[in-house]
Amino acid sequence: MLLLGACAQQPSDTGAPAPDGAQLAGRTFLSTGLVRDGKPSELVQGTRITLTVHPDGRIGAIAGCNSMGGAADFTGGKLHVDGASLATTEMGCSPELHAQDKMISDLLTADPRWDLNGDVLTLRTDTVQLTLQDQESADPDRSLAGTRWAVESTVDKDSVSSVPTKPGGVYLEFADGKVTGSTGCNRLGGNAVVNGDKITFSGIFSTRRACSGDLGTLERAVMKTLRGEVTYKITADRLELTGADGQGLQLRVSAAPSPSAS
Question: Could you tell me which residue, 180 or 10, shows the higher pLDDT?
Answer without folding.
Answer: 180
